[in-house]
Amino acid sequence: MRLTFGRLIHNYMEEFTDAFTDSHSLLGDTTDKKVQMAWQLFVSLEYQVQVADRKVQAVFGLNAFLVAALSLQSQEPLREIVQGAFSFSLAMDLLLKAAFLACVCIATWSALKALSPRIKMPEKGSRTRRSSLFFFGDIQRKESSEFVSAFLGLSNTEAAEQILRQSQVVSHILSTKYSFLRKSTIFLLSALAIWVLIKINEFFA
Fold first, then answer.
1. Which of 55, 45, 57 is nearest to 13 (CA)?
2. Which terminus, N or C, of the chain has the lesser number of Cβ atoms within 10 Å?
């Protein structure tokens, strides 16, 4: 029976929680159970990154809908507007539409930053970042035989340390993603509120 990725993560998290009920697995040397727990933590963080990316895609879709909705309205060139009769309703319409476009632009920019956040994590006491056997960027720099040999030569302690270091990197990425996603959502909701005000202003014009 095939398991969905979400169900697989759910099973991992159940095992991760169950491991804490076994006090012997958390004491002493780095056991297989500890390596498994570290790996389950890493997988759960990776899944949360995918969930964040799906939310960003939803923000992009709604942004595109709002811009399309505004473009479908009849627009007059600014020169004709200035030369014509200027009223409070017209001034309010221009102000609201400018605020609407500003919110949509900021929401889109924040969503783009959420898709590819840049983080800096200098390690204390070290000027260079350690190579990881669990990061694709470091893996592709190694020869195939070198990578296989290094991976098979990992002890439990080394494997757990590398997985946990990579988990910390992913957690920083996830935190940055949600920070930009939160900002994008706030400005998107602001754009929706302004859109409602635009329609109200048109109704009373």
1. 45
2. N
